[in-house]
Amino acid sequence: MARSRQREQQNRYDGELCAGHLLVWTWRKFVSGHADCPLLAREYFSFAGERADELLSAFAAFLQTLGHGSRRILAVGHPHCAGITPDEGQILRLIAAAQSDDTALLTAHLRWLVKSEHQPATWRAVNHLVANLSACGVVLPTIATTPPPRAAMLEVVHREYAQ
Q1: Which of 1, 23, 28, 69 could form a disulfide with 114 if both were Cys (CB 3.0 to 4.6 A apart)?
Q2: What is the DSSP string of 55-80?
């Protein structure tokens, strides 16, 4: 319980907002042309202190590199929507894989998202972002997945009905 609470606090800033949601909100603000939003700057200062500008620059560079090399147009939600799109979730998982040094998972995400000739630049950009996040004490949680069973399991149930 204490470890879970400690991990939860490590991923939070300014009370109750999750760092992953701040990144998604930032991405949405950038895409909608509101990168100069004073509220965004204030949140990053609360989140990263004096490193706020450096962190924002690293995230912007990562997003620009990702967008330039992307295999397709990525779906980004509206800045005021609460949920996240599958692409936003995948980007958070990509960043978490880079932070946990899971090379195989990071490579898989990059191969899925980015054209092969742009993968090295995107790799460098995500690692630069991760270094800045780590310097601010932020570690995004990895998503544990359970592989499906090798053989399908089907349980047959017989019921007798009274007539």
Answers
A1: 69
A2: HHHHHHHHHHHHHHHBSSPPP---TT
Q: What is the pTM of this model?
A: 0.75
Query: Structural domain boundaries of the chain?
Result: 2-135
Q: If pLDDT is split at 50, 70 and 90, which confidence band does 162 have?
A: low
What is the per-residue pLDDT across 11-40, written as a single tens digit (0 to 9) for each? 433 434 578 888 888 899 888 888 888 888
- Run of H or E including 13: strand 12-13
The H or E element that residue 17 is part of is: strand 17-18
CA distance linking residue 55 with residue 60, whole number of Å: 9
Q: How far apart are CA 100 and CA 82, in angstroms?
A: 27
